[in-house]
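agent: user wants the structure for Asb8 protein from Symbiodinium natans. delegating to structure tool.
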Amino acid sequence: MEAGGGDAAVQESVCQQPEDLQVYMASGAKVLEMQFVEFVEMCRARRVEQTALELKRCLQRRRGLSRFRQQLIGPDGEILQNGARLDGPMDIQLALWSFEESSGEQIHQLCELAIYANSRGVEELLSKPLDPNLTSEFHGASALACACNRPNSRKVVDLLLEALADPNTLDGQDRTPMFIAVMMRDTGTIVKLLGAKADPDKTSFNTGCRPPRRTPLLLAASMGSAYVVRLLLEAKADKDKPETSGSTPISVAREKGHAKVVQLLQ
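agent: tool returned. relaying tokens verbatim.
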């Protein structure tokens, strides 16, 4: 009888094991609750391992918390490093780091690393954590603007957007990262910026043009970049927004003989 009762107690205990992955702040406020099987399926769909890093990315997508500012603490009080594997339901505590007080040299270094597409160096600085929106006095730009000026820096762009770099900040030349990416005809970066809610209608300074301020769509139309025009239109860019002279994307495309762009804008 005692043995049977013990077996029943064990079975009941097993049945009561938590099935959720739960994340709490130190205050006790619940930040995330999801079935562990959902986390497993999410990782499988993204073709990644079930790690603390992926949980941080999940928290970023669902709660808007930069993964670079997150510190996850496991049930036993241990800090979960990015590569730590999560093999079952558990309660995890979340601590949020404040940005480190940054020197001008560090900000300059971040921009330099972005320019040279040094993703490892960029990740190390962002993990301090360093505010990605600070502007280098030397470059007159944020690291995101610097990265968008280099066609081989898409991994760096990914890291900066993960750190919640503002995709709408103007650089020292009064240009947005989106405008720079359109100038570079970098469709991959344009897609990433649009995914980060870059404003497709924000005007930038376009050297040599009169009037000098243009939207990314008007710039793409003037360059004859039909695919970029299509991307911006799909992002609900205003196809009728004129320059102060009254020129619109379609009028500029007609003037320059970009028939395919004209067709897209009609």
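agent: one observation worth passing along. The two ends are 83 Å apart (CA to CA).
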